[in-house]
Amino acid sequence: MSLLQEEREIILNNEFIDPFDFAEVEEFVKNANEELFISHHFAKKEKMLVQPRGGFPTYEKQFALNEFFVEANVDVLPLTIDSNTRLNDYTTARKMLQLSEESEHDMLNGYPLVTHGYKATRQMITHFKKPVSLRHGTPDARLLIEVAIASGIFEIEGGPITYLLPYSKNFPLDKAFLYWKYVEKVCANYSKLNLPINRESFGPLTATLVPPSITIVIQLLEMLLSLEEGVKSFSVSFSQTGSMNQDIVMGSVMRKMAKFYAQEIDCADATINLVYHQWMGAFPTDKKFAQQLINMSTVIASMVGADKIITKTKEEASGIPTKEANAETVANTQYTLRILNGLPNITDKEEEEILTMEVKAIMEAVFNDSADTLWRKVFNSIKNGIIDVPFSPHIINHNEMITMRDANKNIRIIKRGNVPIPDRCFEYEKSQCDLGKSNTSIVNDIIHDIGIMQ
Prior knowledge:
Blueprint: H1 3-12, H2 22-30, H3 38-44, E1 49-51, H4 59-71, E2 77-80, H5 83-86, H6 90-102, H7 113-116, H8 118-128, E3 132-135, H9 142-151, E4 155-157, H10 173-191, E5 198-200, H11 212-227, E6 233-239, H12 244-264, E7 271-277, H13 287-304, E8 308-310, H14 323-339, H15 349-367, H16 374-383, E9 402-405, E10 411-415, H17 423-431, H18 439-450
Helix pairs in contact: 4-8, 4-14, 8-9, 9-10, 11-12, 11-15, 12-15, 13-14
């Protein structure tokens, strides 16, 4: 028995889940309908795939949500996991699910997949015959992804950086790398049985003034950590920045760099997809404005040439959206994509050159770390501030990089901290901003920039 299989048996010998039948699950994955694999839909390249967010605690409400989504012509169904399951607190998840089932009130903010189990959840997923994307935010997702794949969920979002630095204060980063190494291996092994299981990184990070170079570097590193374990289908992603031009430049550079670095580790055979998140920052409370923001995000996703768009709803500012609001945004987004024809091809060579230089400089610094494995190099780079995510709550993140918007709403780096931004690029970034103001005025500008869409 391999070391991985030994670890899997320990993890799956768990009082909170159905008895796990490895042979039965392998047979299920081997014979699963190709329609359940998002990698199959990506390969067809017929259109940009539309995926909402959404998760309710009870089986009945999740089923009803999926019915609304299918009626609205969804391409990819979401399964958003509740906070207790994300934190591996399955005892509380079980209690809160029971209370949710006994009353009309939702006591969880998502679907407790581990508690429902793979046998019940598989019935729902195979019923709809749509690919499902697991959205969670879990540093230790080992048990969760085992249950997800056994359920028929063949896209797994997240990673050791993107599901830790934006969400956690003190979960050990080195443990997250090792736990996600397990996830990559399991996804790679199951991919050998049928079509590839797709892994997707979480590009929005803190969704607060994150400069494109940091987003792209983290996307590339999570991609490389996944591909080196044998994953053959991976999605890099980012969210709307607030500048159409910067989004278009970012999408172009991310695609080129992903292809380049995949080839560098002899993984050119892997399929790399590009995913665009509609605005992830603070949403306008006025629902008419919120709908305009969603429509504009869809237009930009088309300009970027994304393979998939992840939608928001006009109820974003007021709480967990209803199934009706979720279905409405899917239908509206599909309509907007359908009528967008003949969009111009916009390029900005100077911005692309600057951004490419920044990404390559940071990546080179990561690779030059003296550690013997990639995950240790990345760990050290975060610890040393070579990678620095603005507004991350995690204690290991330096939070010394400072960003603000220029007159055209582009996110610019005005203080680089330990991030090895080349001097030429740094001077360019600063030159785009009015830094002659007082510190108080600059701070006020940054606060304004955070809530730019409200």
